[in-house]
Amino acid sequence: MEHGNQSKVNEFILLGLSQAREAQLFLFFLFLLFYSLILPGNILIIVTIRTDPRLGSPMYFFLANLAFLDICYCSVTPPKMLTDFFYDRNTISYKGCMAQLFFLHWLGGSEVFLLLGMAIDRYVAICHPLHYTSVVSRPACSVMVILFWCLGFVHSIIQVVLIVPLPFCGPNEVDNFFCDITQIVKLACTDTYDLEFFMFINSGLSALISFTLLIISYVILLIKVRTGSTEGKSKAASTCITHIIIVVVMFGPAIFMYCRPFQESPLDKLVAIFHSTVFPLMNPMIYTMRNKEIKHAMRKLASHLSFARVHLQVNCDENEFPHGGENKGHVCSNYKAQCQKDLP
Fold first, then answer.
1. Containing structural domain, residue 333
2. What is the CATH number of the domain that holds 196?
3. Which position has the higher pLDDT, 292 or 213?
């Protein structure tokens, strides 16, 4: 604490998930496994979409941006949580706490708007297919993604601007493994009822409304697909169902955390773990398992990488080919062609 005209908290103590050393070690390896799967999974989606020309539609452009947001989102709290498992007293500075809060809501808010954009993309593709290429063009998609990031920034900065002036002069223990508005506001040394109500509207109610609108829109699209022509019906329905799963996985924990006006629950930590660590892993898993085009593109990418590895292994040194000269080049060419032919 610093004492002057007003006491000020310099750091917050994160109580974490468990105080037992054995449990901490188990959780460390468990979340390290999750984290080591999240990054390669989302990076693989981005690389696959970027390298395959057949995945150049706006839907896959939005998906690549969603994967990038997941990478950024799961890099805010898990690294700090993993390092804290090795320390008896886990603390975070006041500025670090505000930074965590800001980036969590900036990235989370941007994902919400991106999911709304993906719903608009599916609406135009299913309901107005003749105007799809002109309405949802690549420049329009790029502008939309930039707009989503800006809207997420506005959503987050409003909360930070309202929290920073709060006086923190008393308890500084946060009963969680990261800083969030639901824990930090309760530590302020002043009446925060009006602020809590505003945060409930800004985070909780807005998430509930967005979730409701997304579910209604996808249900309407599913009904339209089922009652429409048979061409492309299965693919469109599968895409809508996949998006519904992503929406439920993302919004479920957020609604639980922010739609209860700052009331504590025994499930808070469990839901926070799922929201900040587990659900970003669901994005690549769901899309990979349910999308045939992405699975085919990934197999093609793996084939290219395999051929590149084989190509590097082909040694055209004269010592390995007794014929030398033209025979050497002919044998190398035939070997490489055979390798490429054998690839799946």
1. 314-342
2. 1.20.1070.10
3. 213
